[in-house]
Amino acid sequence: MTRRWSIAGQLFALQVLVVTLLVAAGGTSAALLARRDARSAAIAKVVGVAETIAHSPAVAAGLRATNPTAVLQPFAEATRLATETDFVVVMAPDRTRFTHPKWNRIGRPFDGSIDRALRGGTVIEEYRGSLGPSIRTVVPIRDPGSGVIVGLVSVGITTASINRGLLAQVPAMAITTGLALLLAGTGSWLLSQRLRRQTHGLGPAEMTRMYEYYDAVLHAVREGLVVVDRQGRVTLINDEARRLLGVPAGVPAADLVLPPEAAALIASRQPTVDEPVLAGDRMLVASRRETRFGGRSLGTVLTLRDHTELRTLAGELDSVRGLTQALQAQAHEAANRLHTVLTLVELGRAEEAIHLATAELALAQQLTDRVVGAVDEPALAALLLGKSAQAGERGVELCVDEDSRLTGEPLPSRDLLTVVGNLVDNALEAVAGAAPPRRVRVLVRHQDDQVLVEVGDTGPGLSAEQAAAAFRRGWSTKPGPGRGVGLSLVRQVTERYGGSYAVTAAPHGGAVLTVRLPVPT
Questions:
Q1: 103-117 burial string, b = 16+ CB within 10 Å, else e?
Q2: Cα(328)–Cα(320) distance, integer angstroms
Q3: pTM higher than 0.85 for the full model?
Q4: What are the tens digits of pLDDT across the range 70-108?
Q5: 418 near 489, Cβ under 8 Å?
């Protein structure tokens, strides 16, 4: 099997290919430009030399001599050598050469175009003559006195000479090209090594497959996942985490604003396991863990689970368990009283038996009548009766204030149960270790477009600092895991309705917790 190339390897090969092509194109362009520049320089050179010779009085005088070759040949050769040209030919208007680098060419007709020069112009052409292909020029020679054209001068540089000059530049161009390739190749290699470390040597297919699998898994799991980098920025959040935290689906991960408690848990940078977190109307359990790879920290992963329903069920289970224990205790007491009543009947003391039996029934019926008469909401009435039984089991008197009035369903039953149930539980906890009399008073009233819930107790009360922190999550006067949640749920429901909550001191000791919930219109 052929080895699959990693992304870094493919990028390195692609960069080397692109750089090589660019350098080759650059070298070719440079060579063409150098050739053009060399040709332009050769033209400028031959034109300049030819015009200088044509304007020399000595050349015009030599053309009038009896033997022009004897006079002009040494001058032409000296000029050719001095200017590094390949030929300087002085000729008569009829093309007869008077000078030439090769003596056997003297006296023969000149090869090339001279018509424009005979008309007073300048001829510039690339022509294959007796010395091979060359770039040449032909300019007229005028008599200084009359201005009549008395001859022509042609100066040229062979193409071979121009090419030799270009070849002399090849080593420098080769060195420059080699250095450019070496520098570009080194940079590409360093970049590929960095990319290899960042991608862990994975290939495109592997990364695509990994992304597809991980994306599918992240969005399929029923736990919320929030990935945060080392700077505390959210880099990934799955669908379940958005749902649990109440984050809009269209907001990019980098622009998310997490709920305060979740943000504080991330910022704490301390590993946590199953930490309660309030997010909107949900009770979440969060675990925070630092992610590391290769010995370096990559950031933080926060996992979230929804325990709202579980905590609600646990609270209901506790209520049922307490009610069951209370009923068991009451059944035991009822059995004792029943035996007593039967004994009194057997002893012929019927009136005393009837009085003892009806006294207990009157107290229970009185509480039931008061609760049912004050609260029409059946779930809340059942809650208060159940809490009354729990209170009796704990030796606490729970009384429903006579001013309690709640008709209809001004608020959802679930929210009322959360507020009243947690306030009563908190009050029962407060008076559990207090000296007698241990009493809890409950007032639930619908007035002025709001529901007032007031729960007072005869416990030890709260200081000003404790009262200010009572509704904060995790705060409790009693140590132990899982505490400090009930009142925070009350605060959460209250804030969702835009209501208010307060803690005040009771007139005869203890504390009074008051919650006001506006009724939506």
A1: eebbeeebbbebeeb
A2: 12
A3: no
A4: 989 999 999 989 988 999 999 999 999 999 998 888 989
A5: yes
